[in-house]
Amino acid sequence: MGVVTQEYATPAAVPRNRLFKAMTLNFHNLFPKLVNGIHSIVFTQGTGGPGTIKKITTIEGDKTKYVLHRVDAIDEATFVYNFSIIEGTGLADTLEKVSFESKLEEGPNGGSIRKVRVQFFTKGDATFSEEELKANKAKIEGLVKLVESYLLENPDY
């Protein structure tokens, strides 16, 4: 098994407490409304703390896929949320799992910065191309920007 790691920081024009609430605490309610293709997010084990497993079901064309999202660590006081995608039909055949370590830090002008470290645990000697890594980064940063837009349009959320 190999490990491929990416690290990056995404700025957002909203305070970290609002971004944390939307992307972490209320993720299961908000993302199916915001992200085309996400059909549902349901808790299959736990209530949100470490060890919780969420089943995320997506619909792509005429195909339904799912992944299991396990909460590894959550700390509301320090804005830390770590989770892993541990199995499912939406997880590439070349991957054992994908782990995310994220922390929201204060940003300029009352905004925030989402720092993320992603580790892809590959099967055998599987690798990623630069294009695949760039696409993954764009996808995850795009989710932050999508939530940021929603929060800016909905200041009472």
TrEMBL record:
Q: Name one GO molecular function term.
A: abscisic acid binding
Source species, domain of life: Eukaryota
One GO BP annotation is: defense response
What keywords tag this UniProt record?
Pathogenesis-related protein, Plant defense
Name all Bet v I/Major latex protein domain ranges. Answer: 7-154
Q: Would you name any one GO CC term?
A: cytoplasm
Q: Name one Pfam family in it.
A: Bet_v_1
**CDD domains reported in the protein's UniProt record:** Bet_v1-like
Membership in a protein family? Belongs to the BetVI family.
**What is this protein's name?**
Bet v I/Major latex protein domain-containing protein
Q: Which organism is it from?
A: Canavalia gladiata
